[in-house]
């Protein structure tokens, strides 16, 4: 299995989660890019593919807040 991971970050969560920035348009771009990569490496139709999204919020104080969504694009 090939796992494609999109990492998004924000300085704070005041304007929402970084995960919310991965909408349909971004998903489509990631799928196109992954398809091109798989074809270029002769892996198209030979491996399973999963898209994960990893969000990081860097608050002014304290440790970063991490969120990982496995298989985020599953329909």
Description:
The structure is a single chain. The chain has 75 residues and is an alpha+beta fold. It has one domain. It has a three-stranded mixed beta sheet, with no helix packed on it. The longest helix is centred in the middle third of the chain and has 17 residues. The radius of gyration is 14 Å and the shape is elongated.
Give the arrangement of secondary structure elements.
Layout: E1 2-10, H1 24-40, E2 49-57, E3 65-69
Parallel strand pairs: 1-2
Antiparallel strand pairs: 2-3
Short précis:
It contains 1 helix and 3 strands; from the N terminus they run E-H-E-E.
Order of helices and strands: EHEE
Please state the overall shape, judged from the principal axes of the Cα atoms: elongated
Spatial extent as radius of gyration: 14 Å
Strand order of the biggest β-sheet: 1-2-3
The portion of residues assigned to helices is 10-25%
What would the keywords be for this entry?
31% strand; three-stranded mixed beta sheet; alpha+beta; 1 helix; 23% helix; 75 residues; 3 strands
